[in-house]
Amino acid sequence: MHRRAFLHTVGRLAPGAATVALLPSAAAAQQVVSKARLIVRSPRPEDLETPVRLLTTWITPNDLFYVRSHFYTPSIEERAWTLRVDGEVGSALQLTLADLRALPATTQVVTLECAGNGRAFFDPPVAGVQWEKGAVGTAAWTGVRLTDVLRKADVRPSARYLWLDGADRGVGRAPDFIRSLPIEKAMDPDTLLAYEMNGQPLPLPHGFPLRAIVPGWEGAYSIKWLTHIQASTRDHDGPFVQAGYRYPRRPVSPGTLVPASETVPLRAMPVKSLITAPVDNAAVAPDAIRVAGFAWAGDTEISRVDVSIDAGRTWMEAQLGRDRARYAWRQFEYLWRPPDAGSYLVMSRATDRRGRTQPIVSEWNPAGYVWNAIDQVRINVGA
Ligand SMILES: Nc1nc2c(c(=O)[nH]1)N[C@H]1C(S)=C(S)[C@@H](COP(=O)(O)O)O[C@H]1N2
Ligand SMILES: [Mo]
Questions:
Q1: Which pTM value belongs to this model?
Q2: Is residue 267 part of a domain?
Q3: What is d(CA 218, CA 304) in angstroms, rounded to the nearest whole number?
Q4: 226 within ligand 1 shell (Cβ under 6 A)
Q5: With a 6 A CB cut-off, is 166 part of the ligand 1 pocket?
Q6: Distance CA 350, CA 352 (A)
Q7: What residues sit around ligand 2, an ion, with C-beta below 5 angstroms?
Q8: How many domains does the chain have?
Q9: Residue 138 and residue 58 in contact, taking contact as beta carbons nearer than 8 Å
Q10: Is the CB of 112 under 6 A from ligand 1?
Q11: What burial class does residue 224 get, using C-beta atoms within 10 Å of its C-beta: 0-12 exposed, 13-18 middle, 19+ buried?
């Protein structure tokens, strides 16, 4: 039930002590988040894309944050929920949310992006959720360092991977969504187990009550509804590790099949930018136009964003916003006065501190991952 609807119901009851017992805990009420303004790519499992024109702030509000779930959203009872930590550890753990909240808390602003964001632009087309540009968002995630939990469990030096599993289960005969995180990234003090998103308990679609946040890496490492961490000497052999989230070792001819042995796992996301204003095909007056958007580069800092208003013939450096964090996108802005009425192709191209920049066309790959071509929108300037 939506929070507003619930309060409405409570409000109609006769006043008295009995109604108090009907109030859910603050945490339970806040799990509910309205996603009414998102594009429904799939209603169930829930795959929701943010219209890019709504991405106006450095921090994406919870109700606008994209949702990617492979299976049905599990129902979780907070009091019954625990996190098990076992496998290659000296002392296996079973932690409640209160146990986790008793550990030192830390907050990181991290941009999360689905590996399949932009899949709809590949030619020839590839199967999978047809994300366009909005399977990306940025939030302040609060929780504990994964490394603190691993230390508590006395993880053994033999552990090379952590197998992360959430409470969701495969639909029908589909296998469970389990991902494998290399121990070096797991031990990185920036890798979190988060119980809050932008100051609220994690909303249910984002993994209530606990999720991994693996900053800079493609979104599928950031397991939602986390219930089990198993330390292992080897990589997990399930399909979401051995078949999914992999990329051809070498560039391949578009449309070809690539055997798994010729692929490597995706990890850090590449450099990318996104124009959020004006919207594509906007009709605008011939005044000053604000071209704005975001740029990000996985675990690497953005060094500059260039904007072109002549289909890429010439480029001008955009201004970068003041808000910044190591694993978060950077807002950019370029103020432009069109010389004349007419139709313009406006483009953005980000460059990161390692000197990487965006390609003109993204390399085709069989699952349609990591589309990061130079972004473009058409703007029609009226007379
Ligand atoms: N348990 C579980 N965790 C999951 C998923 C899932 O289907 N089940 N989807 C992953 C993928 S592919 C992405 S891109 C992110 C999306 O996080 P969000 O829905 O909070 O935006 O969650 C990841 N964590
Ligand atoms: Mo994803």
A1: 0.92
A2: no
A3: 22
A4: no
A5: yes
A6: 7
A7: 68, 114, 219-220
A8: 2
A9: yes
A10: yes
A11: buried
The secondary element (H helix, E strand) that includes residue 18 is helix 17-20
Is residue 6 pLDDT above 90, yes or no?
no
| Residue 91 domain-assigned (yes or no) | yes
Parallel, antiparallel, or unpaired: how do β-strands 83-87 and 263-265 relate?
Answer: unpaired
Asked whether the beta carbons of 158 and 165 are under 8 A apart, the reply is no
Q: Is 69 in the pocket of ligand 1 (CB under 6 A)?
A: yes
CA–centroid distance, 190 to ligand 2, in Å, is 20
- The reply to whether ligand 1 has any atom less than 6 angstroms from the CB of 168 is yes
pLDDT tens sequence across 213-250: 999 999 999 999 999 999 999 999 999 999 999 999 99
Residue 234 shares a structural domain with residue 369: no
CA distance 79 to 102: 16
Q: Examine residue 278 and say whether the peptide bond preceding it is cis (omega within 30 degrees of 0).
A: yes
For residue 169, what are the domain limits? 3-244
Residue nearest to atom 4 of ligand 1 (CA): 223
Of 30-44, 63-77, 261-275, the range with the lowest mean pLDDT is 30-44
CATH at 37: 3.90.420.10
What mean pLDDT, rounded, does the chain reach?
92
